[in-house]
Amino acid sequence: MHSKLQLKLKPAGIGSYGRVYFAILDNEKHVAVKNLMLLKMAQMISRLKHENFVEILGYCVEGNVSQQNNL
Questions:
Q1: How many domains does the chain have?
Q2: Which end of the chain has fewer beta carbons closer than 10 Å to its terminal beta carbon, N or C?
Q3: Helices marked H in 1-71 — which ranges?
Q4: For the whole prediction, is pTM greater than 0.85?
């Protein structure tokens, strides 16, 4: 079973590639949600693994969700 975002997203700011929101998953995990402007950027960032980078849990393309295994 995977977690879902609560409907209420709180704006956190705007980055160079899109808006950032705070959200809470059903399992009470607090996450940041970033609205990326480019699909390729989302795909590339989701593969990055480093202690100084936040992990990308998944991304959505026009209503269709593509998820990593740990979402």
A1: 1
A2: N
A3: 39-46
A4: no
